[in-house]
C-alpha cells in the first residue's frame, strides 16, 4: 500500500503505546496496514431498537424500556434481576455478578438501553449480563453501522480493536492504496470499498452471507489473497530456478540393469513418470517435481530410478522420510534394487549416535556414501554433503516447505542447486495443489500394479468386537497376516503406547495360538526394526500397532486390517492405513471397528471409506468434510495461513485466482506489492 500506510508503525496511532504495540505484534499485527486486514469474525446489529415483544431467543438485539422492578433473588445462584418493560412487553435482565452501585442504579423507573442475546427462562425471555446504559426517552443515536466483533487475544478488548481499525480506515482516505486487482475481478468492490464495508457494514448488510464468508466484498479480498499466494509460490519457484543445477542425463545401461533385475515389470504409469523425471534431471534448471500416486502405486521404485540417475552421474542423493520405520524400509528397498549396481545406501536418523554417526557423516562428506536415507536428522548442521545432486522427500505432507528447502540448502555452492522430487501418497485435490504446490510440476502415477485386489472395507460396531477377533483368528490360521491398529485422539506417545500395549495383551489372551507383535512410537528403534522384520518374515501373524505404521509400511502377505475407533481419524489417514493391506495377491479386508453412536460426519466419513478405494475421491471427500488443514497436514496449512480466504469456502475462486495472478504478474512491481501485502513475513523463506 503506497504513501501514508506503507510501513507505518503502530505507535503512530492514537492510544497505542509500546505495550499495546507489542501485544499487537505478538498477535501478528505488525503495522497499521495489517489492521486493515484484521477483519471481523461477525457483526452485531445495534442499528435499531427492537420492541421487547419482538425479541427472539439467541438473537442479539438492542431494546429500550423502563425498569419496573429490580431485586436480588436467592435461587441456586444469587442474582440481580430487573424487569424491563416497553410498550410491547417485558423482558428479564439477570446479573450473576454485580456491584452495589449497579443495584442502586437499576431502580424502578430508570430508563435503559440494553444489548444482548435473550435466552428462554422459566418466566419468559431473559438477557444475562446485558450491556446497558441509562438513556433519555426519545433518544435516537443507535449505531449507524453494524458493530464488528474482531478476533482477539487476551488483553485487547473489542472497543480497542474498533478504535484501532477505524483509525486505519480513516488513513485510507489519503493513502490511495494501489488497487492491484483488475477491475473485472473485483466483484463490484475496489479494495478500499471492500475494507470499509467489511469493517463497518451498513445496517441492511446481508448478515447471513457475511457469516458464510460469501459476501462479494469478502470474495473480492479472498480472490486477491489466493492470487497472492499463488504468485508467492511461483516466485519461490523462480528463485529456486535462478540458480542452476547439475545436468544429470539418464545413463541408459544403469537404468536398464535396474529394471531387468526387478521381479516385476513397471506399470505404464511408472514408466511414463520415470521418463518425466529423467528428462527433468538432464536439465541445468533444478527439477521441482511433485510425484503423486495412490498408496501402493509404486512410487519408491520411481524414486530409486531417479536416485540411480543422479548417482551414476557422480552426484549424491538424500532421501528424507517422516518416520524411522519408513526410513529403514526405504533403506531395504533401495538396497535390494541398487546394491547389485554397486550402490549401498546409508541411514541417518535421530538414533544414529556416537562413532557410528561420525563414520556415516565422514563417509558422506568424503563422497564415499552416494545415497543417504534418513529422517529429520538430515537437517542437522553437521550433516555435510559432497556434491548433493538430488533431494527426494517422501510423504511430503509431513513436512513443510521450509524443511524441504532447508535440505536443498545443504548442497555445496560448487554443485549448484540440487534437483527436488517430492512424493505424496495423500492425493491433493487439484484445487488445493494450485495454492499448496504451485511451485512444483506434477507427475501422477494413475495406475496400480496389476493383480492388486481392491480392499473390501466393512463397518462393524465395537459391540461386536468378539466376532472381529474370531475373524483375525481365522485369517491367521489360513497363513495370512493381520494388523490391529489402535487409535487415540491424544497426541501423547505415552498414552498411545499404553493403549496399544493393553490391546496387545488382551488379544494375546483371546488368541493364545497366535504369535503377536507390538509396535508403537515409544519402542527403541532397534526393537521397532526387529518387530517389523519379524512381521515381514512371517514370524508374527498379528501386529498390534499405533498409527506409526500409517505411512509406507509394506508387507504384501498382510491381508486383514482392523482399525479401532476409526471415527477418530481423518479420511486421508484411514486411507493411508488401509493401504497397508491389499498389497499382495490375496483378497484383502479392512474392518473399521467403530464406537457407536457415530456422529453424522463420522458416518459420512466411514461410508466414504467403505464405498471407495480411490485416494483421489477420498481426498476430495476429506476436503469437503474436514477442510484443507486436514488434507494437507497442519505444517502445510500453517505455511499458508490465510487471513481471509478459506479453501473450504472459496475453492470455487481458485481458478479465477490463478488467472488473476497471471494478469498481475505481467507487472512485476504490482506482483511484488501484492505478495508483500498478503504474505508479508512469510516471504522470508522465499529468499533462500
Ligand atoms: P507407494 O507408492 O505407496 O510408496 P511402494 O513403492 O511402497 O508404493 O510399492 C508398493 C509395493 O508394490 C512394493 O512392494 C513394490 O515393490 C511393489 N511394486 C512397485 N511397482 C510394482 C509393479 N510395477 N508391479 C508389481 N509390484 C510393484
Ligand atoms: Mg511410499
UniProtKB/TrEMBL annotation:
Q: Which SMART domains match?
A: DEXDc, HELICc
Gene Ontology molecular-function annotations: 3'-5' DNA helicase activity; ATP binding; DNA binding; hydrolase activity
For this UniProt record, the keywords arranged alphabetically read as follows: ATP-binding, DNA damage, DNA recombination, DNA repair, DNA-binding, Helicase, Hydrolase, Isomerase, Nucleotide-binding
Q: Where in this chain does the record put each Helicase ATP-binding domain?
A: 280-445
The record's Gene Ontology biological-process terms are:
DNA recombination; DNA repair
What's the domain of life for this entry? Answer: Bacteria
Please state every residue range assigned to the domain named Helicase C-terminal: 478-624
The protein's Enzyme Commission number? 5.6.2.4
Q: Which InterPro entries match?
A: ATP-dep_DNA_helicase_RecG (IPR004609), DEAD/DEAH_box_helicase_dom (IPR011545), Helicase_ATP-bd (IPR014001), Helicase_C-like (IPR001650), NA-bd_OB-fold (IPR012340), P-loop_NTPase (IPR027417), RecG/Mfd (IPR047112), RecG_dom3_C (IPR045562)
Listed under catalytic activity are: Couples ATP hydrolysis with the unwinding of duplex DNA by translocating in the 3'-5' direction; ATP + H2O = ADP + phosphate + H(+)
- What is the role of this chain? Plays a critical role in recombination and DNA repair. Helps process Holliday junction intermediates to mature products by catalyzing branch migration. Has replication fork regression activity, unwinds stalled or blocked replication forks to make a HJ that can be resolved. Has a DNA unwinding activity characteristic of a DNA helicase with 3'-5' polarity.
What protein family is recorded?
A: Belongs to the helicase family. RecG subfamily.
Protein name stated in the entry? ATP-dependent DNA helicase RecG
Q: Which organism is it from?
A: Parahaliea mediterranea
Q: What is the lineage of its organism?
A: Bacteria, Pseudomonadati, Pseudomonadota, Gammaproteobacteria, Cellvibrionales
The gene behind this protein is recG
Amino acid at each position: 500500500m503506497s504513501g501514508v500506510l506503507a510501513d507505518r508503525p503502530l505507535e503512530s496511532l492514537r492510544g497505542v503505546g509500546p505495550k499495546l504495540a507489542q501485544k499487537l505484534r505478538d498477535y501478528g499485527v505488525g503495522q497499521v496496514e495489517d489492521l486493515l486486514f484484521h477483519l471481523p469474525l461477525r457483526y452485531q446489529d445495534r442499528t435499531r431498537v427492537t420492541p421487547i415483544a419482538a425479541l427472539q431467543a439467541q438473537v442479539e438485539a438492542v431494546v429500550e424500556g423502563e425498569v419496573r422492578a429490580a431485586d436480588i433473588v436467592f435461587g441456586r445462584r444469587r442474582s440481580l434481576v430487573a424487569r424491563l418493560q416497553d410498550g410491547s412487553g417485558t423482558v428479564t435482565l439477570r446479573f450473576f455478578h454485580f456491584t452495589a452501585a449497579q443495584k442502586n442504579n437499576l431502580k424502578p423507573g430508570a430508563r435503559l438501553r440494553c444489548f444482548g442475546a435473550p435466552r428462554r427462562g422459566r418466566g419468559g425471555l431473559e438477557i444475562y449480563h446485558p450491556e446497558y446504559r441509562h438513556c433519555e426517552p426519545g433518544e435516537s443515536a443507535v449505531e449507524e453501522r453494524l458493530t464488528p466483533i474482531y478476533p482477539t487475544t487476551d488483553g485487547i478488548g473489542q472497543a480497542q480493536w474498533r478504535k484501532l481499525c477505524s483509525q486505519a480506515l480513516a488513513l485510507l482516505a489519503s493513502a490511495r492504496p494501489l488497487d492491484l486487482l483488475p477491475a473485472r475481478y473485483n466483484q463490484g468492490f475496489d479494495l478500499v470499498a471492500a475494507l470499509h464495508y467489511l469493517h463497518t457494514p451498513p445496517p441492511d448488510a446481508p448478515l447471513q452471507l457475511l457469516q458464510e464468508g460469501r459476501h462479494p466484498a469478502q470474495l473480492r479480498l479472498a480472490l486477491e489473497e489466493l492470487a497472492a499466494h499463488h504468485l508467492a509460490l511461483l516466485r519461490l519457484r523462480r528463485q529456486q530456478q535462478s540458480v542452476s543445477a547439475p545436468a544429470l542425463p539418464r545413463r541408459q545401461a544403469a537404468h536398464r540393469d535396474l529394471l531387468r533385475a526387478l521381479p516385476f515389470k513397471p506399470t505404464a504409469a511408472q514408466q511414463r513418470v520415470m521418463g518425466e523425471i529423467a528428462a527433468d534431471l538432464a536439465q541445468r534448471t533444478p527439477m521441482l517435481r511433485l510425484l503423486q500416486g495412490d498408496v501402493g502405486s509404486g512410487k519408491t521404485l520411481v524414486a530409486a530410478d531417479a536416485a540411480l540417475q543422479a548417482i551414476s552421474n557422480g552426484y549424491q542423493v538424500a532421501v528424507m522420510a517422516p518416520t524411522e520405520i519408513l526410513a529403514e524400509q526405504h533403506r531395504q528397498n533401495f538396497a535390494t534394487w541398487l546394491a547389485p549396481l554397486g550402490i549401498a545406501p546409508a541411514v541417518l536418523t535421530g538414533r544414529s549416535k556416537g562413532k557410528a554417526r561420525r563414520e556415516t557423516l565422514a563417509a558422506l562428506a568424503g563422497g564415499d556414501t552416494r545415497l543417504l536415507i534418513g529422517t529429520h536428522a538430515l537437517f542437522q548442521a553437521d550433516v555435510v554433503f559432497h556434491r548433493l545432486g538430488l533431494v527426494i522427500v517422501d510423504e511430503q505432507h509431513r513436512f513443510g516447505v521450509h524443511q524441504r528447502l532447508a535440505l536443498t540448502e545443504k548442497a555445496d555452492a560448487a554443485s549448484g542447486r540440487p534437483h527436488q522430487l517430492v512424493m505424496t501418497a495423500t492425493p491433493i485435490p487439484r484445487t488445493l495443489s494450485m495454492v499448496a504446490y504451485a511451485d512444483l510440476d506434477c507427475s501422477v502415477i494413475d495406475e496400480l500394479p496389476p493383480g492388486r485386489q481392491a480392499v473390501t472395507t466393512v463397518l462393524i460396531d465395537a459391540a461386536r468386537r468378539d466376532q472381529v477377533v474370531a475373524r483375525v483368528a481365522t485369517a491367521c490360521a489360513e497363513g495370512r497376516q493381520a494388523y490391529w491398529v489402535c487409535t487415540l485422539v491424544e497426541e501423547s506417545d505415552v498414552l498411545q503406547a499404553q493403549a496399544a500395549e493393553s490391546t496387545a495383551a488382551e488379544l494375546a489372551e483371546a488368541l493364545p495360538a497366535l504369535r503377536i507383535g507390538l509396535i508403537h512410537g515409544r519402542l527403541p528403534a532397534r526393537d521397532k526394526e526387529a518387530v517389523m522384520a519379524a512381521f515381514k518374515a512371517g514370524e508374527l501373524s498379528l501386529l498390534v500397532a499405533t498409527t506409526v505404521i500409517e505411512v509406507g509400511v509394506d508387507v504384501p502377505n498382510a491381508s486383514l486390517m482392523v482399525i479401532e475407533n476409526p471415527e477418530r481419524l481423518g479420511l486421508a489417514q484411514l486411507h493411508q492405513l488401509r493401504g497397508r493391506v491389499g498389497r499382495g495377491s490375496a483378497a484383502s479386508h479392512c474392518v473399521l471397528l467403530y464406537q457407536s453412536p457415530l456422529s453424522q460426519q463420522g458416518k459420512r466419513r466411514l461410508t466414504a471409506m467403505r464405498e471407495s478405494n480411490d485416494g483421489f475421491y477420498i481426498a476430495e471427500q476429506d476436503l469437503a468434510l474436514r477442510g484443507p488443514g486436514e488434507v494437507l497436514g497442519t505444517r502445510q496449512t500453517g505455511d499458508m495461513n490465510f487471513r481471509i480466504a478459506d479453501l473450504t469456502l472459496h475453492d470455487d475462486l481458485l481458478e479465477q485466482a490463478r488467472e488473476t495472478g497471471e494478469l498481475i504478474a505481467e507487472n512485476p512491481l504490482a506482483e511484488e506489492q501484492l505478495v508483500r501485502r498478503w504474505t508479508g513475513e512469510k516471504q522470508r523463506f522465499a529468499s533462500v
